[in-house]
């Protein structure tokens, strides 16, 4: 096998309503069946009219940009300084929701295509039906990523190619089942295309030749949407600072009779978690804590009797703060708790029931 | 410009001490000056002897794997179920620290190369000095990433090529300065190489031809290390669940006289933050809060007098819990606070000073 990655030069400026299939085939009469077209999302957006008018300067421009960002945002993810990382309505996590002010006049912003898989399918269909060309289409854009500097191109949409190459069930020469099973090949094709597009000026389309066997499957496939991982499945759905603040706010909201604010992170041994919680607060607490494991029933797994340092009002206030500290520390390991203030022969105390 | 991506077939099994440069040039006598060699890190590790002995089965194997993971981990990042995402001593954030049990016999695990940039430089030097071949070398591995399903290959090491293609200062045809300035081209080259390596069985090296101009710069350059973003610079340095737990634990540790536990997320208007904190706790609190902004001096920006619902012991305990709630809510917006319990004609109360 051997791949070629070729630039499509001479496409020129794209305007709303332009026929991309015609523009591409005119610029690249050398296209062949089986080629993968890697098309920069910006020209798809421009052809589809995914543009918004904005003032060219001043505060009005900033206000308008903020409004557009708000409209394109399904969920804020992280921020620092001027940077806003959000999840778009498509599910992509991108800086500024992929809104772009480059390669367009200053009176417009370019949005992402509304449905990049649909755009890929439409372009593929037009190329086949009007130009007799059986190709696959990948619609690409540039994204940042956690943990690594620099940006790479990835696929927003795809048609005529599987987004994933699946190695599940394959066995290596040593008899081990392959641990790396699903490769995001459309992202790698987008990256390969960028190498060629990025080095030439004004080349919005690259062709990867030799990757697919002909004839291509007639079906367009599931598109690049399968690469979108939902926030509920993602271990990094929120910026670290935002998630820490959520934890602090959850501690602030912890009701007297409360469920743990977040799902359990990991099944931690109960007694270990309890010991850890008591250790966490030991430096700050003046109250004393006596923990009794309970027989297994619905009332909880453990009762912690918390007594003040002395019988004065100051010590009772401290007791309240310490109980709240204990319950936040338990919640950090996914343990819910309730608190009851009670009196006995030894005075006012709090019973924390941990479940 | 036009790229070719070619597989190097027939390298066969690599063993500790093997001469990779000789193996590659024997398998690919067609290599040329200016080619970029994309070399799977696993064969580099094997040649360098970055292997550890492990039991082939049973609990001992699991224990040994855990030990190896611990040794390779600089910092845990996130976990769920059996998955452990960690930052390695190199700075890479990878599942299982990149430790691999595939394409090796069951008595060994393959670690990442100790210094992949050094490995790339050494291979490049040997190819030039012993084989007269002036190429660039990228050492690649497969990584997952947040937000997107599927894996892609990226660069762990590089020599003879800049990891980043920098567009800073460039201007588009509309006169806009380019917003996307730094492309991680060695990651894109690794991805392009994987398209060829992944489709063929047992092809650990691919060649990207046509990307670099000859003659190559003599210097090896900064390597792929420049792509590693430190945890302090990363908005996603920790899993969301872990960061939330950190926030809860920070609330549990909040001392009576405390600095905010984390750096300020965003410069929020002080009065807005105070209003938000009071609103956050309003549903759970029985105490009453009276906030007074202070004249600007070192003593703080605001004093909140917190009074219990009544003069009983139960209300004093609740007051303590409520004050702790308030201070956690303030900390969520980066505001530090101290608490003092005091008495006056109206009884025991707490003064929270916010700074």
Which protein chains are joined by the largest interface, and how many residues does each one contribute?
A: A-B, 125 and 125 residues
Unreliable runs of chain A: none
Helix content of chain A: 25-40%
Going by CATH, the homologous superfamily of the largest domain in chain A would be CofE-like
Main pleated sheet of chain A: 5 strands, mixed
- Indicate the CATH class of the largest domain in chain A: Alpha Beta
> Strands of the biggest beta sheet of chain A: in what spatial order?
1-12-2-8-9
GO molecular function (chains A, B): coenzyme F420-0:L-glutamate ligase activity; GTP binding; metal ion binding
Protein name (chains A, B): Coenzyme F420-0:L-glutamate ligase / coenzyme F420-1:gamma-L-glutamate ligase
Organism (chains A, B): Asanoa hainanensis
Domain Coenzyme F420:L-glutamate ligase-like (chains A, B): 12-210
How are the secondary structure elements laid out?
The structure is a homodimer of 355-residue chains.
Chain A: E1 3-8, H1 20-27, E2 36-40, H2 41-48, E3 51-53, H3 58-72, E4 73-80, E5 83-88, E6 93-95, E7 108-110, H4 116-131, E8 136-145, E9 148-159, E10 165-166, E11 182-183, H5 185-199, E12 205-209, H6 240-253, E13 257-258, H7 270-281, E14 288-297, E15 300-307, H8 313-332, E16 337-344, E17 347-354
Parallel strand pairs in A: 2-8
Antiparallel strand pairs in A: 1-12, 2-12, 3-7, 4-5, 5-6, 8-9, 10-11, 13-16, 14-15, 15-17, 16-17
Helix pairs in contact in A: 1-4, 7-8
GO molecular function, one term (chains A, B): GTP binding
Pfam families (chains A, B): F420_ligase (PF01996)
Keywords (chains A, B): GTP-binding, Ligase, Magnesium, Manganese, Metal-binding, Nucleotide-binding, Potassium
């Amino acid at each position: 096998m051997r791949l070629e990655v070729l630039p499509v030069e001479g496409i020129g400026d794209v305007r709303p309503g332009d026929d991309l299939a015609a523009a591409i085939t005119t610029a690249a009469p050398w296209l062949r069946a089986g080629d993968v077209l890697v098309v920069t999302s910006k020209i798809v957006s421009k052809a589809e009219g995914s543009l918004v008018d904005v003032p060219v300067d001043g505060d009005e421009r900033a206000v308008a940009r903020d409004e557009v960002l708000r409209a394109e945002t399904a969920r804020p993810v992280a921020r620092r300084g001027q940077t806003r990382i959000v999840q778009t309505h498509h599910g992509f996590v991108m800086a500024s929701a992929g809104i772009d002010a480059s390669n367009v006049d200053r009176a417009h912003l370019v949005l992402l295509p509304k449905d990049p898989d649909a755009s890929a399918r439409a372009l593929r269909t037009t190329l086949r039906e009007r130009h007799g060309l059986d190709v696959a289409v990948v619609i690409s854009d540039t994204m940042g990523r956690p943990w690594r500097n620099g940006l790479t191109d990835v696929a927003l949409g795809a048609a005529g190619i599987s987004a994933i190459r699946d190695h599940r069930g394959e066995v290596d020469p040593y008899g081990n089942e392959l641990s790396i099973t699903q490769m995001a090949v459309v992202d790698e094709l987008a990256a390969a295309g960028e190498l060629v597009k990025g080095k030439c000026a004004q080349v919005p389309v690259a062709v990867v030749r030799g990757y697919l066997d002909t004839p291509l499957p007639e079906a367009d496939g599931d598109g690049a949407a399968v690469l979108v991982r939902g926030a509920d499945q993602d271990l990094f759905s929120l910026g670290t600072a935002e998630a820490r603040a959520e934890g602090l706010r959850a501690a602030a909201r912890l009701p007297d009779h409360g469920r743990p604010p977040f799902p359990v992170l990991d099944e931690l041994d109960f007694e270990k978690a309890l010991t850890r919680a008591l250790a966490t607060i030991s430096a700050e607490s003046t109250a004393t804590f006596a923990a009794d494991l309970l027989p297994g029933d619905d009332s909880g797994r453990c009762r912690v009797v918390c007594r003040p340092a002395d019988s004065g009002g100051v010590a009772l206030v401290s007791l309240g703060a310490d109980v709240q500290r204990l319950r936040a520390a338990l919640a950090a390991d996914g343990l819910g708790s309730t608190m009851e203030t009670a009196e006995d022969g030894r005075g006012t105390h709090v019973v924390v029931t941990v479940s």
